[in-house]
Amino acid sequence: MQISFYSGNLAAAQADVLILGVFEDVWQKAAHVRLVDRALGGALIAAARDEQFAGKQKQKLVLATAGKVRCRRVALVGLGREETGSAATMLRLGGAATRTARSVGAKSLVLCLPFAAADVTAHLCEAAARGLVLGGYRFERYLSEPSRAPDVSKAALAFVDGGRPLAAVKSAVSRAQAIAAGVVVARDLVNEPGIEVYPETFAAAAKKLGTSHRLKVRVFGALEIEKMGARLLLGVGAGSARPPRLVHLTYAPAGGKSKRSVALVGKGITFDSGGLNIKPTGGIETMKMDMAGAAAVLGTMVALSKLSPKVTVHGVMALAENMPSGTAIRPGDVLRSAAGKTVEVNNTDAEGRLVLADALHFATTLGVQHVVDLATLTGAVKVALGPSTIGLFANDDALATALADSAARAGEDLWRLPLTETLREQLKSDVADMKNTGDRFGGAITAALFLREFVGKTPWAHLDIAGPAESTVEDGAYAKGGTGVGVATLIDWLAS
Ligand code: BES
Ligand code: MN
Ligand code: ZN
Questions:
Q1: Using a 6 Å cutoff on CB, does residue 466 contact ligand 1?
Q2: Among 131, 384, 386, 399, fewest CB within 10 Å belongs to which?
Q3: 320 φ/ψ angles, rounded to the nearest 5 degrees
Q4: CA distance 328 to 368
Q5: Ligand 1 close to Cβ of residue 470 (< 6 A)
Q6: Could you list the active site residues?
Q7: Cβ neighbours for 174, distance < 8 A, ≥ 6 positions apart
Q8: Of 77, 92, 101, 97, which is closest to residue 149 (Cα–Cα)?
């Protein structure tokens, strides 16, 4: 999608549809609404009354303009109350704009944000532009009859006062394009079924993307993983006919101008059957998405290479398929990790923390200042925070705060949860240094406490994305399926 800016009179803007983002209550007084309503002889506000449009979140109204303004159609998109004038709201607006345009067959749109040009911040504009691109996302590879609605290929952003954007706001659009491209990488991988995306093919995709984006690529096969002593990763993959992989991508800024270096670590379970602790019907069907953490890491690496920030970033992906078979690990097995600690596997369905333990240890050997992992780690985090919020755990308050600020600027929902020390004893084992699973209550916390054992003193944060990694509804900038959640937050943290 090509995105530009439009300044001047909205009635003269040229596109298939003119879309106005409006806040609840105050929308009739907003300059963009008044201008278009006047041009339409009062028909816009009259139609809104008839349709009981009030600017509430998710409300929209589409109206034919009969030639009275240059666009054939005008649409209002409700944003809810003004205090929700956040990046999340702008992301939602962008997504709704593209989807509304497509629903009426429009190939081009002008989206007027509910802000004056001088008031809009770069991150609000970035979110709106990212929403525009991502609202057009579809995954239709396997449909014999793809939907016929054409793509919205051209969009322009405008402001209520008809003003021109500041330079920082202008460059936010190219940032949005880079981030959206990374999000699409993540979404596509999550949406691909497990029969196509397994450790070897995921690693091949990472190698291809990494190489074409000038990243350093290393792929470790089963033998090398064994040599590393990463028996937890090996063990989780042992039940599958498809052996595990560890992928290490490196982004380094040109000319050695690196100010800091960090590692991102992703859980890449290409299918999580649960292993011998097999998941029941109702829990297993969506488990091709269990590599969303690794997919977000890869998407972030791709976006980074387009943005060229002055920071060295390692992307580590722990890839395995968790399957039950005669070669699978058993409940009660004791495995030695790359870090040297032994683990009693009391539940083979708590496999994410096992592969991450080895990958986190690997990451800490890279001499980085921070390690951040992303993982669809626990059902418990969905119980705690709901389906659309990232759970954040960290052993470092400054890092936690920085990531929470980045999530807010990126428009992603995130909430910090505690590493409750008293729950640590649930991971004590009689036969090994620790076991991999605690009680049901506080399950997201014990999972995070397990991970913490493998990062030593390195400042570390863990993003449990089990809720928002996949969406069951089409909503804002999300389509059904993989969301690419985490990419935008990480890019904000790394590149701003
Ligand atoms: N991949 C799952 C977590 C998950 C659940 C992700 C729902 C997305 C949606 C993870 O490997 C898992 O199975 N966790 C178990 C842990 C338990 C065995 C301690 C869980 O959450 O039930
Ligand atoms: Mn599992
Ligand atoms: Zn899992």
A1: yes
A2: 386
A3: -160, 160
A4: 34
A5: no
A6: 279, 353
A7: none
A8: 101
